[in-house]
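Recall that a protein's primary structure is simply its ordered list of amino acids. Everything else, from secondary elements to tertiary packing, is in principle encoded there. The following example makes that idea concrete.
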Amino acid sequence: METIPRWTLDPVPGLAEYQLPLPEGTSVQPPDLAAAHARVLTALTGEQTEYDTALHVGVADGILRLRYRTDVLDAGAAARIAGYHLTALAEPDRPTLLSEDELRFQLDELAGPERELPDLRVHELFEQRVALHPDTVAAVQDGRQWTYRELDSRANRIGRALLARGLPREGVVAVVMERNLDWLAAVLAVLKAGGVYLPVEPHFPGDRIARTLARADCRLVLTERGSDGNIDRAARKLFVDTAYAEGHADDDLGIPVAADQLAYIYFTSGSTGEPKGAMCEHAGFVNHVLAKIDDLGIDAGRTVAQTAPQCFDISLWQLLSALLVGGRTLLVGQDTILDVPRFVDTVVRGRVNVLQIVPSYLEAVLAELEQRPRELPDLRCVSVTGEAVKKELVQRWFDALPGIRLVNAYGLTETSDDTNHEVMDRVPDQERVPLGRPIANVRVYVVDEDLVPVPLGAPGEIVFSGVCVGRGYVNDPERTEAAFTDDPYRPGERLYRSGDHGRWLPDGKLEFLGRRDSQVKIRGFRIEIGEIENQLLRVPGVRDGAVVVVRGTQLAAFCTGPEPVGADEVRNKLAASLPSYMVPAVVHWRERLPLTANGKTDRKTLTALAEELDAGESGAPDTPAELRLAAAWAEVLGIPADRIGRLDHFFDRGGTSLSAVKLAVALDRAITLKDVTRHPVLADLAGLLDQHH
């Protein structure tokens, strides 16, 4: 960083002045200074906001004088900003305001530490552990358990069965199985055979499965009896029990697998509605798993809970990380996860040491522990990921369980999963919970539209470089080209544009500011939804909240908390810290926010609900099916039947995945959990009920 040539304190309290000599012979006219100041403000904030009143710049006697409010800037920031002004005046055509020192600092010093990776793949690191302690228990599911030797033997036999069917190097194998011990063996088998793992959940619609296999150019499906119902009959299938019965040798395959070889493909939802398959290589895979082992404290004898569905990339490190160090994987079934008390009991009985869940589910776990307090004697570390974790939730966690570390993990499927870890043993000082520093061998830049780093502390797009960056999207050159490019600062390395916005904090940690596509315009004003939600959480009595746009013209807020707070009180509190155009027109109070299948706040459902509420009160149920459903809702949700309307939304009225299961039982399985998820409005679900009879 640049040194400070001159520094004087201003006699006015709360103000300070930084002075920087202009290069000899420099002449500055008022329009030049105004243009330079405007450029600096835009670079600092993306638009001219709080810095308008925090900064005053002038030139006199060959000295640039920057006067600033000390509650907004510190001395180091003032020095940098003065330097930006000088660059804007002296080099108006320079593409960046950053000095060479600051540019190099951002590109090098803010990167994750360099770490030499072993010249081994994840499955080879597992094989080393098999040799060291073959009879140690490797994986547990319900009442079953396999030792390292048993797991390795089964994986080797499946791997040879794949090779016997002509699996080529980097041949894609779709694994269509439930989350069980055979699934674990199947994943290892694909890797050992030099194939590419493609997870597919058995209950996905057949059309989606077919499109996924076609896009990935997948010729071979590894599955099990009962999980193959939605697989196209034309697909070439290998059942695991068939592979076991073929009598293949069970020693290691010894197939050479290179570090830059493709390891897996995960399909994620795309903004166009067509899923895209992110391709990641073995080097990035190993790098990520080793970072998890280090930062989450996974070592010999530790138990890691495997909780995530197969199609979420976090499922992979949960499945395999413990097996690289002599630990144990505990597979937790989806029915257990849907029952929070049972899940907590499973964590206790399974002596789980490391756990990762989404923040919304962590809140449910905390609510359970508040209702039925109990000890979690073996739990050492909980990681949250998948959505922004709110500071209030972190506070509740440490109030309840001060001895258990909380790790905020951030990353994307395209970057081999998590790239940043914020390891916390207390509530952070910042307003937002940081994303933390990059993990080893990962470089993160915060840049403008031209991939030029923005000033420290300024908002910009988060982009990634290094071993973590995947190859792109399988057989999808157009979307690959839009998101993946060459790193302009390190020739020959790939760079991924995330679409996330963030900024660097003074301590070198990354802060998440929201998705690029969460920015909206209301009456011509550009609004970041996250900013309103952060202020919403500061309103006394509001525990959780979300803001959506209704019909593109109006903001609506949804709040939860121990006791309802009046809508006018919430709006008045927000009006004290936000401009009028950012204050939601309406505020709805709910028992809880609806969640998606993976535990995130369901914004689509909230938007639809806000539009329904905006249209008026829901009418009373009147058809036999609607009346039957209303009675079942009342039983499951614990609310009077006469307070249920025909346009009410099941999850808005307090429904959860677990209560949806109970609803299906109450209706004698006339509907399924999937039906409730897809048709949560009572009238729609009643129509489906009529169709089934």
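Confidence is low (pLDDT under 50) at residues 1-11. The two ends are 73 Å apart (CA to CA).
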